[in-house]
Design goal:
This protein has 138 residues and is an alpha/beta fold. It is built from three helices and five strands. Strands 2-1-3-4-5 form a five-stranded mixed beta sheet, sandwiched between helices. A hairpin with a 6-residue loop joins strand 4 (103-108) and strand 5 (115-119). Helix 2 packs parallel to helix 3 (88-99). The protein is globular, with a radius of gyration of 14 Å. Pfam families: DUF7768 (PF24963). InterPro entries: DUF7768. This is DUF7768 domain-containing protein. Residues 6-104 form the DUF7768 domain.
Length: 138
């Protein structure tokens, strides 16, 4: 299904503390490796590395990071949602992917690890949106 494709990894970065953001960055790196190995595709996630240079709590740096993420998403064939929650940044990426005709999948966990569920429209996942209390920008 994804063999040879370029997959954009969409997972939460936003968090209340720097330590939580660094943890989320580590999860993004793990998703990069796991999805690549399991589905034999190339994986990309700007939020796995950009937080080392750009501060998510500074609005203009967050805006730049989101812009870089969109450019990377344009380069990819599909978007894969990873994790149990959808942050506001992820919401923007998912909506953008749908608007630009990208295939969108959600990596399922729990009893059926490594199962991809195809997401046909935003309404299928709208209930999952969770925006952190101290979110800086929209």
């Amino acid at each position: 299904m994804l063999k040879g494709k370029r997959a954009y990894i969409c997972s939460p970065l936003s968090a209340k503390t720097r330590e939580e953001r660094m943890f989320n960055m580590g999860l993004a790196k793990a998703y990069l490796d796991t999805v690549s190995q399991v589905f034999h595709c190339r994986t990309y996630a700007s939020h796995a590395y950009l937080p080392l240079m750009l501060d998510d709590t500074i609005p203009e740096e967050r805006k730049l990071a989101l812009s870089i993420g969109k450019q990377l998403l344009d380069f990819c064939d599909v978007l894969i949602i990873c994790g149990e929650r959808i942050s506001s940044g992820m919401e923007g990426e998912i909506r953008y992917a749908h608007d630009t005709g990208k295939e969108v999948y959600w990596l399922k966990g729990g009893r059926d690890p490594f199962q991809l569920r195809k997401i046909k429209n935003w309404k299928e996942i709208e209930y999952a949106v969770q925006i952190p209390e101290n979110h800086i920008s929209e």
